[in-house]
Design a protein that fits this description.
The protein is of the alpha/beta class. 42% of the residues lie in helices and 16% in strands.
Length: 427
Amino acid sequence: MRLKLLLNEKASDKLMKNIWIINHYAMPPQFETRIRNNIMAEYLIQRGYKVKIFSASTIHNTAINLIEDKKTLFIEKTYGKLNFVHIKTSNYTDNGVARIVNMVQFPIKLLKVVKKFNDKPDIIICDLGTIFAWSPYLVAKKFKSKFILEVRDLWPESIVAFKGISKKNPIIQIMYKIEKWIYKKADKIIFTMEGGKDYIIDKGWDKDIDMSKIHHINNGVDLEQFNYNKKNFTTKDDDLDDKSTFKVIYAGSVRQANNVRKIVDTAETIHKKGYKDIKFLIYGDGPDRIPLEKYCISNGISNIIFKGHVNKNMIPYILSKGNLNVLNYMQANIMKYGGSQNKLFEYLASGKPVLSTIKMNYDIIEKYNCGLSSNTQETMDIAEGILKFYNMPKEEYNIYCKNALKAAQDFDFKILTDKLEKVLLED
């Protein structure tokens, strides 16, 4: 009887939990490409939590601003079960000064907006870059809420890795100090990459930061939604429907960090080898798409087709029609801490093998034997990986497919929300 009362007490405590998720780039479901916050929020709501998501009014990588009125500070919107607070931020189109202004506006205006709400949060989940997390931390301190910091990108380490800026740069040094400070202040830290603790140790911060409060929860895939979309959002595409070709698919942004030029070079190498029935299909858009298309035309590379932007709900069907998915980024030292790329988990859910052109620690592809990771980013090495699957006996190929589905099941957002809930309920 006493055990039952204790369980009911715990359930009652959970139902009272009021959670604010603060993420500059969280978007309404119809626009969302970074699905983590929305899906986990929905599952938490199903479990009895009250959840509110604070985000910017601008929709990243679009010209859309949900607040056109210059005098409006914020708007509240409900999308199904999701409750959003969109904070007015100015428009931007690229990574220039306008975007920096936008990034600075959000944490500053957040401090004004939260004063308008009386429903005190029990928990604040901050999904901002660490240099901007000071603002949600101050909000948590004001309301005496538990402050949970989610780290998807290692800032400023990723700037150093991908932009070539020196770690000794004074601005970078200041950013490191802010990063360490917010790690110390957070009640809990959740890294999406598995090597988050390694990063803290490599920085020499483990003596100042309580390592027991560090957790790891990958990004993932909502298998229920993925399979629904695969069945209900199909498209007529002659290249996808061509059963006589081995289809290598890349789905994602076509920009410098994604290094799609490497896929183009690989397609050219395979074309020169005389393979006529291997076709590369690139789904996505970005500043590098048109220059790469022109390069292919100029050099007669006819086995690669740029499909451009497609609605996200079409991706499951598209991936299910391919033979091999390509995970492709620029190689950087930061990969030693692992990765948690959203597209990887969609690739896995398609039940098709994955060829990664990057080498990283904590490699999910190697762990589950659901594909191959290139030892180098040499074009010939990547081409050989593709040809290995092209020539692979059906029985062996099917093992990779089954392993991909098994991996996807382990990274279903239902499972990941279980892990998040454990962190939420920890003292």
